[in-house]
Amino acid sequence: RRPADTEIDWKAYMQEVEGFANGTRDYTQLKGDTGPLVYPAGFVYIFLGLYYATGRGSDIRLAQYLFAGLYLLNLLLVFRIYCRTNKVPPYVFFFMCCASYRIHSIFVLRLFNDPVAMAILFLAINLFLEERWSWGCLFFSLAVSVKMNILLFAPGLLFLLLQRFGLLGCIPKLCICALLQVVLGLPFLLVNPVGYLTRSFDLGRQFQFKWTVNWRFLPEEIFQNRVFHAALLLAHLAGLGLFALHRWHSSKESILTLLKDPAKRKPASPRLTVNNILWQASCVCPLNASAWIVFILFSSNFLGVCCSRSLHYQFYVWYFHTLPYLLWCTPTTKLAHMPKVLLLGVIELCWNTYPSTVCSSLSLHICHGLILLQLWYGTAPTPVSHTPPPSRKPTATSKKAQ
């Protein structure tokens, strides 16, 4: 029998998009049993398709089959990223596929919109690894339009775009992201632009204390305090700044050189090609070109998760599939594999403790802190020559040189 709580969020989603199907274009009028619609417009279009595919939301079993297919597609996209990075041992994929009851529940039982956003995000990352930056930015923006948590990857993506294209070169990519948001939100922007923007991109929304997974050990008064929220935001910005300056940025020049045309930098790095990134990454940690891109994106998201004002149970999917990479992207001895597997197990246990307890939330923060320390010290700069390695292809000797 289907548990009663299966229908809670799904029913609310269907009620929210039903108003749009019936002609409502004022975003403030779209609501369900759990409250008003608070997701951007891409969510409406995707779940409107599910609304019609499942007989106006009545065939929940069909919806679960569709989400099971989404789950398999998501794994395929994640595995493809991991194969390109070549950092994670094969046995870890077992834990990613079979050892998380919570992830299976988020995808197939509860039918949340979080896995939809993450699947599109992983598609965008695959496109980045294929050097298809424009298409990657398009799908990144589409993922943001489903749920705003994807913006946690945005600082890392901005860094990569600046590194790859410079300031002027990355403006067209950012315009792609912005233009898609305008196009998707146009039906609502034409009717009530303020209502749409304040509802779908509400960064100041309060969370209920009873659902928090990560801050259960705090008194509720502190949890709801705006000063606490501001402190978390400052911690997040400080973490991003430190990683950008000392872990993502590998050149000895000022980070402001990222604003220059890549061809004019010293040493010149016109493209995020394999040779160039291998040289840049060797200054920080032994990652290949794909792994270096993934490291920046995944660590950007992880910093945001660590500093989140509240993590609800469905938010686990925000970073579950990135955890193995974050744990194994740094140099690992044979004896160090077991503690990393143990960390994965403790994090899983914390997310499966319902309701959360003081012990489970503290344990989650400790695990996050240990991963952050590993990322910081495991990617510390090493004293290497800053002359880019010569290309493997033999170059022709000029007549003058002869």
From TrEMBL:
Which molecular-function annotations from GO does this UniProt entry contain?
dol-P-Man:Man(5)GlcNAc(2)-PP-Dol alpha-1,3-mannosyltransferase activity
According to Swiss-Prot or TrEMBL, what is its membrane topology? Multi-pass membrane protein
The record ties this protein, via InterPro entries, to:
Glycosyltransferase_ALG3
Pathway annotation from the record: Protein modification; protein glycosylation
Name a GO CC annotation attached to this entry.
endoplasmic reticulum membrane
- EC class, as a word, reads transferase
**Which chain regions cross the lipid bilayer?**
37-53, 65-82, 111-129, 135-162, 174-191, 227-245
Disordered: annotated span: 383-402
Alphabetically sorted, this entry's keywords are: Endoplasmic reticulum, Glycosyltransferase, Membrane, Transferase, Transmembrane, Transmembrane helix
Pfam families in the record = ALG3
Q: Can you say where in the cell this protein is located? A: Endoplasmic reticulum membrane
Which chemical reaction does it catalyze?
an alpha-D-Man-(1->2)-alpha-D-Man-(1->2)-alpha-D-Man-(1->3)-[alpha-D-Man-(1->6)]-beta-D-Man-(1->4)-beta-D-GlcNAc-(1->4)-alpha-D-GlcNAc-diphospho-di-trans,poly-cis-dolichol + a di-trans,poly-cis-dolichyl beta-D-mannosyl phosphate = an alpha-D-Man-(1->2)-alpha-D-Man-(1->2)-alpha-D-Man-(1->3)-[alpha-D-Man-(1->3)-alpha-D-Man-(1->6)]-beta-D-Man-(1->4)-beta-D-GlcNAc-(1->4)-alpha-D-GlcNAc-diphospho-di-trans,poly-cis-dolichol + a di-trans,poly-cis-dolichyl phosphate + H(+)
Q: What is its EC number?
A: 2.4.1.258
Name the domain of life: Eukaryota
PANTHER family for the chain: DOL-P-MAN:MAN(5)GLCNAC(2)-PP-DOL ALPHA-1,3-MANNOSYLTRANSFERASE, NOT56 - RELATED
Q: What does this protein do?
A: Dol-P-Man:Man(5)GlcNAc(2)-PP-Dol alpha-1,3-mannosyltransferase that operates in the biosynthetic pathway of dolichol-linked oligosaccharides, the glycan precursors employed in protein asparagine (N)-glycosylation. The assembly of dolichol-linked oligosaccharides begins on the cytosolic side of the endoplasmic reticulum membrane and finishes in its lumen. The sequential addition of sugars to dolichol pyrophosphate produces dolichol-linked oligosaccharides containing fourteen sugars, including two GlcNAcs, nine mannoses and three glucoses.
* Protein name per UniProt: Dol-P-Man:Man(5)GlcNAc(2)-PP-Dol alpha-1,3-mannosyltransferase
Which organism encodes this protein?
Answer: Quiscalus mexicanus
Q: Which gene encodes it?
A: Alg3
